[in-house]
From TrEMBL:
It is an enzyme of class 5 (isomerase). It comes from Paenarthrobacter aurescens (strain TC1). GO terms for biological process: carbohydrate metabolic process. Its EC number is 5.4.2.8. InterPro entries: A-D-PHexomutase_a/b/a-I (IPR005844), A-D-PHexomutase_a/b/a-I/II/III (IPR016055), A-D-PHexomutase_a/b/a-II (IPR005845), A-D-PHexomutase_a/b/a-III (IPR005846), A-D-PHexomutase_C (IPR005843), A-D-PHexomutase_C_sf (IPR036900), Alpha-D-phosphohexomutase_SF (IPR005841). Residues 393-467 form the Alpha-D-phosphohexomutase C-terminal domain. Transmembrane segments: none annotated. The keyword 4Fe-4S does not apply. This is Phosphomannomutase. Belongs to the phosphohexose mutase family.
Length: 472
């Protein structure tokens, strides 16, 4: 391939720590994507191997998938186009087929964006520390020299649909056929859950389960005409909350754009925190592992999840391991520890049986199983896993983030506390009544506060004290 030479390419604006993201037509184009596809093959040594390429419902994803495939084939890889897929479908395919792959998605970002998430064979993550920087550098070289050199033998491009195999695999991991009947509202946000939900939980490809599914925004539409596909923002849950109440549903599920995260709403329309979901799924996975003969199953949780999670894990006979925030850290520790499950406060849930990768759908199935095997409502079930009160994440826009943290440290230094610096600064009362974490953003002028306490009054007191210091 010959590239028109009229500018110098610098891809640092779109290559992030864990993936590629940019504005379509500006920092991510078909020309750039083709060079990245070629570099992907060379850096990972995939000439002559099969690679998997898919994309989400964004308008540019099909063109980008073909461009990446062409770059990969030019460098001698055989490409299987997976067509429309969720991100966890890519992880499934990379694991089940033991092949490296890429999917085009910008997850919850606005419609103007697209990006690339890449994985090695076995769904092993690719980050800036494990090949992404090298892929960027080689892609820039191809773009700036104007040529992607052809391999001796050009690879072939074919098509492979994994939706049914993915759906069957998830159903083997969590058997929902014996559940009591449940009414479920699912908000796909016009994202990929509009494709995967009917396949996994409905009767589109597999036998019907005892569920009535009420769909919200299942139409695949990368312009996101109803609301952004980012359930982390409370305003994007309002339609789901209203629909759960209107239909008298047992549960509501909200997925982000590429469907690798899942948020849960109870029958009263109230959110069930990702920490509570982590605890709920951890309990099930510990019990299953113990039944299979595993003495002390390991559960991973990041440092912003509720302290209820490690307490529950210990009570159930497991071992909790605390990590930094971020999926590359979680996946690495999952592999090192042989952990059965991991959860993050951001609603990413990781499973050993899913190649240590994150999948929103499998987490949702565990919650449905837990709800469906007992008679009580989700609000009662969830309360068992939320004994503490959380502030949620609060951002303060300040330039001198280190100075703000130091003001807080000085103010709290006379208290009976522990401070650790695993990820930001975590202040913990030795009597167990509260903790809070301050984390500086690496990319924005934000200092992020997360606080948790034994009751609402204590949480508000700590939250307001810290914010007053930070914003002084």
């Amino acid at each position: 391939m010959t590239i028109e030479q009229n500018k110098t390419f610098d891809l640092s604006a779109s290559f992030k720590a864990y993936d590629v993201r940019g504005i379509v037509g500006e920092s991510i184009t078909a020309e750039i994507v083709e060079a990245v596809g070629a570099a992907f093959i060379d850096v990972l040594g995939l000439e002559g191997e099969t690679v998997l390429v898919g994309g989400d419902m964004r308008p540019s994803s099909p063109e980008f998938s073909r461009a990446f495939a062409n770059g990969a084939a030019t460098r001698g890889a055989n490409v299987q186009l997976l067509d429309l897929i969720s991100t966890d479908e890519l992880y499934y395919a990379c694991g089940a087929l033991n092949a490296a792959g890429a999917t085009f998605t910008a997850s919850h970002n606005p419609a103007a964006y697209n990006g690339i998430k890449m994985a090695k064979a076995g769904a092993q993550p690719i980050s800036s520390e494990s090949g992404l920087k090298e892929i960027q550098a080689l892609a820039e070289q191809y773009l700036n020299t104007g040529t992607i050199p052809a391999a001796v033998t050009r690879g072939e491009i074919g098509v492979h649909d994994v939706l049914k195999d993915y759906s069957e695999y998830l159903r083997k991991l969590v058997d929902l056929s014996g559940s009591r009947p449940l009414k479920i509202v699912v908000d796909a946000g016009n994202g990929m859950a509009g494709l995967t939900t009917p396949a996994v939980l409905g009767d589109k490809l597999l036998p019907a389960l005892p569920f009535e599914i009420i769909p919200l925004y299942f139409e695949l539409d990368g312009s996101f005409p109803n609301h952004p596909a980012n359930p982390l923002e409370p305003e994007n849950l309002r339609d789901l909350q209203a629909a759960v109440i209107k239909h008298g549903a047992d549960i509501g599920l909200a997925f982000d754009g590429d469907a690798d995260r899942c948020f849960v709403i109870d029958e009263k329309g109230e959110p069930v925190s990702p920490s509570a979901i982590t605890g709920m799924v951890a309990r099930r996975e510990i019990a299953r592992a113990q039944a299979a003969g595993e003495e002390t199953p390991v559960i991973i949780h990041n440092l912003l999840t509720s302290k209820a999670v490690p307490e529950l894990v210990a009570k159930d006979g497991g071992r909790a391991v605390r990590t930094r925030v971020g999926h590359s850290f979680i996946k690495a520790v999952m592999a090192e520890e042989g952990a059965v499950f991991g959860g993050e406060h951001s609603a990413h849930f990781y499973f050993r049986d899913f190649w240590n990768a994150d999948t929103g759908m499998l987490a949702a199935m565990h919650v449905l199983a837990a709800l469906g095997e007992q008679d009580g409502p989700l609000s009662e079930l969830g309360r068992q896993y939320e004994p503490y009160v959380s502030s949620g994440e609060i951002n303060s826009e300040i330039e001198d983030k280190a100075g703000a943290v130091e003001r807080v440290r000085v103010d709290f230094e006379t208290e009976d506390i522990d401070i650790d610096h695993m990820d930001g600064s975590t202040f913990t009362a030795k009597d167990g009544s509260w903790w809070f974490n301050l984390r500086p953003s690496n990319t924005e002028p934000f200092l992020r506060l997360n606080a948790e306490a034994k009751d609402q009054a204590t949480m508000e007191k700590i939250r307001d004290r810290v914010l007053a210091l930070v914003r002084a």
